[in-house]
């Protein structure tokens, strides 16, 4: 089946002519069989993008393609899309197997094939034993599995997942993440658009992540690229945790407060202002390369780690270090360091926005 | 002061204004004018053709009006709830206002439009120049009563339906359409099943109200249409045959209470 999704300069506005722009000229391609996460805070336009693919919002301009079919003007029921939403949206008066059969009957699948395909879909998500239950008799995680089976039963080329795990508690969520990853391995041809505000879900599942903010696409790349080499401050702070420190750029080094730090400065002119991004867990305590001296302003014990907040030249640097037997006292002077290759320089003017 | 004392005032009030007159009605129905206590009035009334006609007319009018209200009310509520149009909210508000109108007002309005000397017939006679009556004479037939009852009672079905529709998770409708269901299938397979309790509630309310409707039947001026309430009126006020009037009233009450009981049983089953 021909799958894959392409947004061609899609703009969506709500509330008439000069209404509020929910999605601003989005260009994005999801390759066939790829998992693309749309990651961003609420109101960033990620759900609007998903709804434009499903057909629930009509773009003010631009085209939406599924495979090489232009679906911009098609009603939702003719798009052949599987969709799973946060609150499951199972039909409460139908049993589990009837819920899964709903799409098959709507698409006029031959009657004789329906029971087999329902059983296959339920087996795929491990819910075969619950076929005769009603949704209200199932837990949240089980209901979400049924919702996924219902979406997959129609064998869609494209699967849209709208915050599918947000209603589940933390433990279930991690189990369902593994389950979704397994499903994707078993259905390698299905393209998945996965809307989430949770960076862990995006990093775990996605082949690529599109970072959205304020109705715009901010950044797009593999999880490794976005995490190790973010291009904007917004990406750096939204995908993982980050120290974002204003620095002055020199030749092959930058200066923060009085300290000279060695980092790659390619692409940034000497003398310019820039932002240095260092992940807190890559900052070490004690002397080393790129040492920074400062005073401890706060210590948070998080079980396996201690997070230290250290004031260096007027900036607060976060450091996540392995649990300390004797954590430093507040106001104590400590030395932090990080490896030159762990610092990423973000040129000024690439602030998220 | 023991707690049961607080139950006395409402019980006394209920007894005085409702249960005692009800008992009087039942008592009167077994006291024929010839004296003594006997079931003779029941035999007389059940044996009369007028009563059997009125019973039949009452039941088919009530059932017909209920079915009409359910179909019309469901359709209108669907449009108001799910088809965005300018002024939709105002229409929903107007439904509430409509519920407070007296039933004869609707009948009166229909008389102005379709009555023998109403607007529709006036337009017809003006246009054709004929001197006879216009073609719209159905208002004085049972069909006129049916039309008036459907017009008046439809909002009573729409109110609970609109409340039920506002509870419906729109994500269900969206998922259904993404699964390939057209609007007609979504209405049949998703919206209708979830609206059934509201339909049952509105429908049974309308059925009971139609069975007991008096004003509409009287105001349409349909002389040939006799229902149980108008029969009670005729027997008591025009013929001064109180035992017969009370028999008909008892039958009317029994049907209403019986239907209400049936509704409670059915709704409890559906809810379980």
Automatic annotation (TrEMBL), chain A:
Coiled-coil annotation reads none
The ABC transporter domain sits at 5-239
Give the matching Gene3D superfamilies: 2.40.50.100, P-loop containing nucleotide triphosphate hydrolases (3.40.50.300)
Q: What is its EC number?
A: 7.6.2.9
Name the enzyme group at the top EC level. Answer: translocase
Q: Which domain of life is it from?
A: Bacteria
Keyword list, A-Z: ATP-binding, Nucleotide-binding, Transport
Output the Gene Ontology terms for molecular function.
Answer: ABC-type quaternary ammonium compound transporting activity; ATP binding; ATP hydrolysis activity
Matching entries from InterPro entries are given as: AAA+_ATPase (IPR003593), ABC_SmlMolc_Importer (IPR050093), ABC_transporter-like_ATP-bd (IPR003439), ABC_transporter-like_CS (IPR017871), Mo/tungstate-bd_C_term_dom (IPR008995), P-loop_NTPase (IPR027417), Transp-assoc_OB_typ2 (IPR013611)
Per the record, its GO cellular-component terms are: ATP-binding cassette (ABC) transporter complex
Protein name, as recorded:
ABC-type quaternary amine transporter
UniProtKB/TrEMBL annotation, chain B:
What biological process terms from GO does the record include?
2-aminoethylphosphonate transport; transmembrane transport
Annotated membrane-spanning segments are 59-85, 97-116, 195-222, 242-263
Domain ABC transmembrane type-1, first and last residues per copy = 55-263
Question: Which keywords describe this protein according to UniProt?
Answer: Cell inner membrane, Cell membrane, Membrane, Transmembrane, Transmembrane helix, Transport
Q: Classify the protein's membrane topology as the record does.
A: Multi-pass membrane protein
Q: Which GO terms describe its cellular component?
A: plasma membrane
Q: Where in the cell is it found?
A: Cell inner membrane; Cell membrane
Extract the CDD domains matched here.
TM_PBP2 (cd06261)
Q: Which Gene3D superfamilies match?
A: MetI-like
- Record family assignment: Belongs to the binding-protein-dependent transport system permease family.
Q: What is this protein called?
A: 2-aminoethylphosphonate ABC transporter permease
- Provide the species name: Streptomyces longispororuber
Lineage of producing organism: Bacteria, Bacillati, Actinomycetota, Actinomycetes, Kitasatosporales
């Amino acid at each position: 089946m021909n799958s894959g999704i392409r947004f061609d300069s899609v703009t969506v506005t709500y509330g008439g002519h000069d209404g509020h722009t929910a999605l601003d000229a989005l260009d994005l391609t999801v390759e066939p069989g790829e998992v693309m996460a749309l990651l961003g805070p609420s109101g960033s336009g990620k759900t609007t993008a998903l709804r434009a693919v499903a057909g629930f919002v009509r773009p003010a301009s631009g085209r939406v393609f599924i495979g090489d079919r232009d679906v911009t003007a098609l009603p939702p029921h003719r798009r052949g899309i599987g969709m799973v939403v946060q609150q499951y949206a199972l039909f409460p008066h139908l049993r589990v197997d009837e819920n899964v059969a709903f799409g098959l009957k709507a698409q006029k699948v031959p009657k004789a094939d329906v029971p087999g395909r329902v059983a296959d879909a339920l087996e795929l998500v491990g819910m075969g034993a619950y076929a005769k239950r009603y949704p209200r008799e199932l837990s949240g995680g089980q209901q979400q599995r049924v919702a996924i089976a219902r979406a997959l039963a129609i064998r869609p080329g494209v699967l849209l997942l709208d915050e599918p795990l947000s209603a589940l508690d933390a433990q279930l969520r991690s189990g369902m993440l593994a389950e979704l990853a397994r499903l994707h391995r078993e259905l390698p041809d299905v393209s998945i658009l996965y809307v989430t505000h949770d960076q862990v879900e995006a990093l775990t599942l996605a082949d690529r992540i599109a970072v959205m903010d304020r109705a715009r696409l901010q950044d797009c790349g593999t999880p490794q690229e976005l995490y190790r080499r973010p291009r904007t401050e917004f990406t750096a702070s939204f995908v993982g945790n980050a120290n974002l420190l204003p620095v002055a750029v020199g030749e092959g080094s930058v200066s923060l407060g009085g300290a000279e730090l060695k980092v790659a400065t390619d692409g940034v002119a000497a003398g310019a202002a820039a932002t240095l991004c260092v992940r807190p867990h890559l900052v070490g305590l004690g002397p080393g390369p790129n040492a920074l001296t400062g005073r401890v302003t706060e210590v948070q014990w998080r079980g396996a780690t201690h997070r230290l907040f250290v004031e260096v030249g007027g900036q607060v640097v976060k450091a996540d270090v392995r649990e300390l037997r004797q954590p430093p006292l507040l106001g104590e002077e400590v030395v932090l360091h990080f490896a030159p290759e762990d610092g990423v320089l973000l040129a000024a003017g690439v602030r998220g926005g | 002061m023991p707690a049961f004392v607080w139950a006395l005032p409402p019980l006394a009030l209920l007894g005085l204004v409702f249960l005692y007159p009800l008992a009087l009605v039942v008592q009167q129905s077994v006291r024929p004018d010839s004296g003594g206590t006997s079931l003779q009035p029941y035999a007389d009334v059940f044996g009369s053709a007028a009563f059997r006609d009125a019973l039949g007319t009452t039941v088919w009018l009530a059932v017909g009006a209920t079915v009409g209200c359910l179909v019309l009310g469901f359709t209108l509520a669907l449009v108001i709830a799910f088809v965005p149009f300018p002024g939709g909210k105002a229409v929903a508000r107007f439904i509430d206002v409509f519920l407070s109108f007296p039933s004869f007002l609707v009948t009166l309005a229909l008389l102005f439009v379709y009555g023998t000397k109403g607007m529709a017939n006036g337009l017809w006679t003006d246009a054709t120049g004929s001197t006879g009556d216009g073609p719209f004479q159905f208002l004085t037939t049972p069909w006129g009563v049916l039309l008036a009852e459907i017009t008046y009672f439809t909002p009573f079905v729409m109110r609970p339906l609109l409340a039920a529709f506002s509870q419906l998770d729109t994500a269900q409708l969206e998922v259904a359409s993404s699964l390939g269901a057209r609007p007609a299938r979504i209405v049949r397979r998703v919206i209708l099943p979830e609206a059934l309790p509201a339909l049952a509630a509105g429908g049974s309310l309308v059925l009971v109200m139609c069975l007991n409707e008096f004003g509409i039947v009287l105001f349409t001026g349909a002389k040939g249409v006799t229902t149980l309430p108008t029969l009670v009126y005729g027997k008591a006020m025009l013929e001064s045959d109180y035992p017969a009037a009370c028999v008909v009233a008892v039958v009317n009450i029994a049907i209403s209470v019986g239907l209400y009981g049936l509704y409670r049983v059915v709704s409890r089953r559906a809810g379980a």
